[in-house]
Amino acid sequence: MTSHRTTRVALIDRSKPLRFSFDGKEYQGYEGDTLASALLANGVRVMGRSFKYHRPRGPWGAWVDDPNAIITVTLNGLSFPNCPATTTPLVEGMRARAVNAWPSATFDIKSGLDVFHRWLSAGFYYKTFMWPNWHLFEPMIRKMAGLGDISRDVPEGYSADQVFDHCEVLVIGGGAAGLAAARAAAEASRGVVLVEDHPVLGGGLHQMAEIEGLAPTDWIAEQVSAITSAGGRILTATTAFGVYDHGLVGLAENGPFGTAPRLHRMRADRIVLATGALDRPITFADNDRPGVIAVDGACEYLARYGVLVGSKIALVSNNSLADAAEVLLAEAGAKVLRLNPHDGPMQALGGKRIKGIAQGAKRHDVDTIIASGGMTPLVHLWRHAGGKLNWCETRQAFLPGAAPDGMVAVGAVNGAFDLDVSLSEARAAGNGKSPDLSPTSYALTPLWPDPGSKGRQWIDFQHDVTLKDVELAARENYVSVEHLKRYTTLGMASDQGKTSNMAGLAAMAAVQGRPLPEVGTTTFRPPFVPVPLEMYHGHHGKQLWHPLKRLALEPQHRAAGAALGEYGGWLRPGWYGKGEAKQLIHQEVLTARGSAGIFDASPLGTIEVMGPDAETFVNFIYYNTIRTLKPGHIRYGFMLTEGGIVLDDGVITRLDQNRFVISCSSSHVDSVRTHLEAWRQDGNNPDRIFVHDQTQHWATVTIAGPKAREILAALALDVDLSAKAFPHMTLQETHFEETPMRIARVSFTGDLSFELSVRCAKAPALWEAIVKAGQALGAAPIGIEALSILRAEKGYIMVGKDTDGETMPHDLGFGVPRLKKSAAFIGDRSLHCDKANATNRKTLVGLSVPMGAPPLATGAHLVDGTPPRSQGYVTSSYESPTLGRPVALGLVENGAARIGETVSVWHLGDIREATICAPCAFDPEGERLHA
Amino acid sequence: MRDDSGKWDAPLPSGYAHDANGMTLAAVTLARQVLISGPDVLTQTKQPIAGWPDIVTADSYALSVRRDRVLLVNGPTVSEGWHDDIGQAVSDASDAYAVFDVSGERSLEVLKRGAELNLDVPSRSVARLLFGLGVFLYRYETENSFRIHVASAHAEALVKSLEGAIAAC
Hints:
Largest sheet of chain A: 7 strands, mixed
Oligomer: heterodimer
Number of strands of chain A: 48
Low-confidence stretches of chain B: none
Radius of gyration of chain A: 37 Å
Distance between the termini of chain B: 39 Å
Largest sheet of chain B: 7 strands, mixed
Number of strands of chain B: 13
Shape of chain B: globular
Structural class of chain A: alpha+beta
Strand content of chain A: 25-35%
């Protein structure tokens, strides 16, 4: 008989049987089982196939330490890949399938790969799959790589809740030490939260007969009662997966299977680490066979699930903790054979099941091998927090050393494998003391991999890394542990080396003839266990993934049939109407040129700069001279980076001596505000300059086109709209329905244009009034798409589209301030460096195509030479309904001096011709602008 | 260039309110919100000034945003611009911020889904991030009632986040 269920009292509920299937075969387990315990209870040993060699594998451990039993679980029609069988709770109706195996884990068609293991050692893929072309092999390798397949079905409602939380003391680990520490802290009136990753508290206590005179469940219940009575909180089925800056711990609270964990971002004043320790595998020949199980794992299966892992068990251990295990298993009815691993090299016998163990010349008839090469404390979270590790020669393990701020380690993780010591230091820690390393009764004889010894000996089960692979890595000079890890992939699977790191380091140390502590460890990184990406995703989905800013006039746009889309972080009308988009957009352009376009310009920045030093400040911020700007006047200008690169363009209005309004690009408002605030505090007196971002208070409706004045006049505002009284680039203030209104005569289309700004609450009334007034004159709302064409016809740039990360203002034709502005400004010095003075700088040009030719592709490269070299590219390109032909803007080397030159334009293998021309293709004299 | 109108919920109706799980989320209409900046604004402001986790009970009050800035709520009309005599920059921000109240016994739990909040850690500023959005957050009238000012353009995003958090509680 192999593994089976006993009658021992365990943590399962035998009154609640659960049916499930594995690889197509039906089984039964109980509530409280994991998939692994239920399968073992049914005598199933082979639960998976190894990653590379497709060797049969069974569970090594009983919890997060198991690297082998990886399962795809289907429940209620939804599939979840890569579920560890040892931590997946059994649920009625589960359909489980081993990953990386077909048709089943027991009979896998790729098991023959193991025959070729000599040619498939570590790093073989770096030396093969090269000729004739790596890409020939790529699809096959991608198909074979990885474990498990992702289902294309999207589970509805699979959404992670995320909460921020805090506590005074966070105790991580609900075993003996954790419970004792939590109780002590709670009774000392500290706000305590205890987290335990098992659904049931107690850790290894369930293996014991009694603790402090009580049965384990009674002792645990007493601690729980004391903790909760004192106001403490306990979270079970919750894994602390990472420690981050300033005492922030990530907790994944698991719910029913098939639901996303809840993420707790727990901020703790103090952290007590009671995460315990794991058995290390022993490295011997064929140590990866199904039926080779950790000593503690075997005890856990018995204590928690009532499952005896075998009938004739070989117990191989180098340490004193095996004594209690031997008694426990024997009392459950197993025949236990104790073997000393130092008596000779060992080999597991059998394939899909253990048939025996050989040691030297002896062969022992067993059906199960349980092994322990010592205990490895789970110091991951300690290392996340920056804590140091010390090598303990007595325990042959890395233990917590110099502590990170606010963290203390107690119990087995601190090397306290004696229960009384563990409880004592845990209670001290709960009361705020930091325990020292205590003497221990734990005894072991060092047992590490023996390089050069015979047989295939596994170091990393999940990634199929053997002792020979480590030796190979050393021969190829990958001697740093970080290189060893990446070259062999040791510790890189989903188990992240929990059971392989120590053996791998020890093997490397032995190969190099160095002490193990000198070799060191690889870096520990969160998450401690795999967690679903959804846990990090949380509510940031769909509309909340990247929430767009919404316009005050959105109801009006929707009512007008606008096609809304994202433009610069806002949801804005691209065009209006139902039908063929291109046609509608072209009609909007023609409407704007023939009558007027009515346009929601609310997202444009409205940032006020005020104070006695505001004038000096904005003169410094801008490339252009601003201090000479008179009240009521507007100036177009650039903001530069310190490197002289164009950051933003826009207009600045002076309202009075100490008050300016910066109207920056709508997509740049936040960055411009930040830019202003940073410089306000750098080299200036911040008590004399204030920046108020008023963008969200004001709504702006633009009327642009030859009939703009007439439409505005119909509103009967108290403003002289004549060209003489209201010239281009000036502002007037008035009222609309008793609300302050600003009217700026600025233009982004090149036609007569007025921007009317009121507080958002008044925007609907203003919009309705303008649309109504415009209707009679053939005006209509226009969207961003039409606006893009209108401004391109005029050669007006969009920063970030017609400029790139190297564009300086003189590249755009604005060279005067660079030469003439005497006051300091941001970017000044960079405008005079060699690069800024180079003659082949890319400059803004227009591009025209032969009559009848289609528009150029945006992003197409202007090329010359053989092979072709890019000398610039097309930045904007449209069919212009106004001109009846395509227009385009681009950046090209020395472009301003090449007007009239014909150039080749390359795009996706096609080459066309274009002629460099001036950027402005419409009304270059500006007559319509100054109407 | 595409029509994404159908991918975004319709804008919030005026007078928005939402009740679920024993909690209420409701839009608030204020008479006035005025942003005032100046080196001495905290001492110059006559209205009670609230930080975190203060409970505001007055009709007219100021929110402490930073050492040199307050948001005056329901205060008197103040002319905008730079006031050289008292060293203050004043801007009417009445429509710049949408305002919502979240109330109910578990309102703090709701908000803790969007920000790390601790009633035991005071702050002189009510400004913080909530669900990734810049807000002013403080308590209004009772211990379990929170008032939130958010940039108007982000009102829909805040409400959607809060509705989700209320549902999760």
